[in-house]
Write a structure and sequence with these properties.
Length: 59
Amino acid sequence: MVECGNCKMRVTPVKGYNLALMVVFTLMGIIPGLVYWFYSMSGPADKCPVCGKKAAQPV
Ligand SMILES: [Zn+2]
């Protein structure tokens, strides 16, 4: 668990996955949603699940 430097919340880093963006893409259709999901899963697990920025401050 790390503290996000951006939104100051204690979060478990996830792969580059932005919940708001995910909702938008999924609303556009299942294909854009899946494409975004696979794109997100290809990166390292160091992103804040709340704001989608890098959460790199170990607590
Ligand atoms: Zn954050």
